[in-house]
Amino acid sequence: MIAAALGVFVATRPSAPQPSSTPSPTAQSAPQPPADATPQYAKFGPHKQESLPPIPFDGSPTARPPDVVRAAYQFAAEHPEVLAYVPCYCGCERSGHRGNDDCFVAARDAVGDVTQWEPHGMT
To answer: N or C terminus: which one in the chain shows less Cβ crowding within 10 Å?
Structure first.
């Protein structure tokens, strides 16, 4: 039954248009990213840090248990190559955040060690 339905679907779907060998005069090429589009902190790669600054717990309740929050901040410190590519959907890009790394890390030194946390990651 499923195979028959799949066969009907494949047989009746419209065929894909064949690509033209000459580009349309109104066709626009997609913008190309800059040659070095790698986010700054992603260049550090996995980054184990000996000591981290204190997590910015301010006494108010956190969105997750404190151990989960600590683990998220530690992951942010040690894996900027991951978080630099993870977008944040909470609207913080209006505050200048470029990726999820900015939600947790406010500053790093020249070798990539976290020197200051962003309290935004608590939410």
So the answer is: N
User: pTM for this structure?
Assistant: 0.62
Token readout for 15 is 């065929």
pLDDT band at 36 (very low <50, low <70, confident <90, very high): low
Determine contact, residues 109/115, Cβ cutoff 8 Å.
yes
pLDDT digit string, tens, across residues 87-111: 777 777 666 667 778 888 888 888 8
End-to-end CA distance of the chain: 49
Tokens of residue 17, six digits = 């248009």
DSSP state of 5: H
Asked whether the predicted pLDDT for residue 25 surpasses 80, the reply is no
Is residue 102 within 8 Å of 81, Cβ to Cβ? no
Radius of gyration of the chain (CA): 23
**Which parts of 9-112 are beta strand (E)?**
105-108
Cβ-contact 73, 106 below 8 angstroms: no
Reduced to 3 states, what is the DSSP secondary structure of residue 61? Answer: coil
